[in-house]
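Sequence design from tokenized structure. All designs in this work follow the same two-part layout: the structure record, then the generated sequence. An example of the structure record is given first.
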């Protein structure tokens, strides 16, 4: 992930007879496509891991062949790293409506551009789970029905929580961990204090940590686009609880954006 958009080339004026040689920034279409593909990579790669590989069974000697929670957490982190370095230079590499709104609240992204980003992210995520469903349709008999009955890796509480945690736990997790995620993003991509070369890696490792800590609680959202994408195929219970995984990650991101701007980007006294 990098700062939201490259600076556009400076136009020559009547007093500046030397044409600007700076390359033009990416087009609006390219920016939105980058958000689409980045979110697609995130959802397709990570949710595929959760549905196909997390609990694959055991070998004849009893050794587990599944990757478990650790593998799923790494899949989320690795897909963010891949997307950040592949598409981040084009769009800033948000891939998450909560991140987009958090950056806007911090004054690091224009509010007028948030709607286009969010639409691209939601569509990219939905295409990602649709591709997974297509793979499952040609899989073993009953695979898709079993995946749907199991919630299709959707987020949730009570019966949809891997560890049986309740609604309050999900609320606290989504607000605090999304806020933490946005704080890290704002810090590592800061225009003067950040480290652009390592930003994608740091952000990916942070997302891995978040999943390691919270998958047992609510299957970890911190990303409304990811939650919408899985709830589409997760059945009625997943759709009924989806609102919380849209609202509370956004609340956490907005709080983080405002707090970061006040605490770290405010003017210092003499």
């Amino acid at each position: 992930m990098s700062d939201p958009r490259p600076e556009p080339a400076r136009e020559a004026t009547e007093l500046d007879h030397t044409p600007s040689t700076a390359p033009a920034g990416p087009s609006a279409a390219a920016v939105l496509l980058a958000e689409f593909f980045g979110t697609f990579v995130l959802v397709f790669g990570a949710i595929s891991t959760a549905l196909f590989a997390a609990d694959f069974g055991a070998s004849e000697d009893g050794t587990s062949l599944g990757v478990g929670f650790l593998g799923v957490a790494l899949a989320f982190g690795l897909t963010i790293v891949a997307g950040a370095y592949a598409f981040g230079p084009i769009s800033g590499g948000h891939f998450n409506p909560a991140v987009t709104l958090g950056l806007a609240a911090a004054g690091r992204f224009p509010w007028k551009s948030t709607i286009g980003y969010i639409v691209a992210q939601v569509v990219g995520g939905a295409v990602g789970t649709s591709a997974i469903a297509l793979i499952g349709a040609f899989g073993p008999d009953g695979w898709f029905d079993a995946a749907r009955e199991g919630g299709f890796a959707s987020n949730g509480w009570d019966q949809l929580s891997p560890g049986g945690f309740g609604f309050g736990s999900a609320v606290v997790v989504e607000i605090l961990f999304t806020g933490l995620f946005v704080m890290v993003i704002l810090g590592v991509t800061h225009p003067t204090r950040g480290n652009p070369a390592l930003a994608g890696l740091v952000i990916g490792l942070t997302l891995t940590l978040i999943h390691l800590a919270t998958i047992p609680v609510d299957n970890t959202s911190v990303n409304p686009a990811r939650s919408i994408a899985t709830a589409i195929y997760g059945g009625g219970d997943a759709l009924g609880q989806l609102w919380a995984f849209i609202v509370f990650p956004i609340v956490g991101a907005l709080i983080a954006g405002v707090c970061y701007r006040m605490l770290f980007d405010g003017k210092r006294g003499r």
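The two ends are 33 Å apart (CA to CA). We note this feature because it recurs in several other targets discussed in the main text.
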